[in-house]
Structures are given as structure tokens and as C-alpha cells.
Amino acid sequence: MKIGGMTIGKMKTVIALLLMMVPALTAVPNAVFAAATAVPETFSDPATETRARHLQRQLRCLICQGESIDESNSSFAVDVRRLVREQMVEGRNDQQIQDFFVARYGDAILMKPPLQSDTWLLWLAPFAVLGIAGTVAAVTIKKASRAEG
Q1: Would you give the DSSP letter of residue 3?
Q2: What would be the CATH architecture of the domain defined by 2-114?
Q3: pLDDT higher for 15 or 108?
Q4: To bridge 63 with a disulfide, which of 74, 102, 117, 133 should be the other Cys (CB 3.0-4.6 Å)?
């Protein structure tokens, strides 16, 4: 569905980015929420901790862009890590947790976004660039060999 020329997924991403630009507005509710629910920073069970770390590596820090929330130390990543662990404590499976974040922030939150009609260019662009570079190199080498001979 489109509203004003933007898909709902893109609107969610824009809204999430705008909210991250104004940390003062979200600082108080986040502090109150964090105090209300005590979730461990590490699980005592190694299998559960491994699962949490794996999930955290699947989610992108929207502030750092190139880092997962497992690697990032931004306030956003800290909040998302806490939310991942809260949902694990509540008994949600990995797919339900990822779906929660995709619904909230769009596909931009995933380290490996799915191939969809609006992301195919991102997936195919590296191959197109390699193809173009290879073609330019081949043409340049061919012209250079003709000039010498």
C-alpha cells in the first residue's frame, strides 16, 4: 500500500530514523521501561546466550549502519539488545523476534535484507559494477594491443 508515493515499509524506516535523530524524546521512556523490566545482559545458559548473540548479529544498528547490534555500543543497539533478550525470556522464537523488528523498523534493520522488488537493485548492483568494470578492462586491453600491433 502506498501513501503519498511512499510504501508503508519505507515510511516506517523514515519514522524510525527520525526518532533516532531526537534521542532526548526517547530517553525518558526508555529509562522508565528499562527500570520496569530487568533482563540479564548475559544469560547463564550457554545455549540461550549463543542464540541471543546469533540473533543480535542478524540485526543492524540503524545508527552505525555497518555494524550489527551485537557489535555496536550505540544507545539504539543497547536498547535493541535488551528487547531481543526480553522477547527471548517471553518465549518467542527467532523468526517472531525478527518479524517484530522488521514490523517496527522495516527491512533496514536486517543485516541480510530479503530480495524484494524494492531491494533488487541493492543486491544486483555489485554484480553490475563488476560486469561493467570487466567490460571496460577488456575493451581497454583490446585497444592497447591493437595500438601496439
Answers
A1: E
A2: Orthogonal Bundle (1.10)
A3: 108
A4: 74
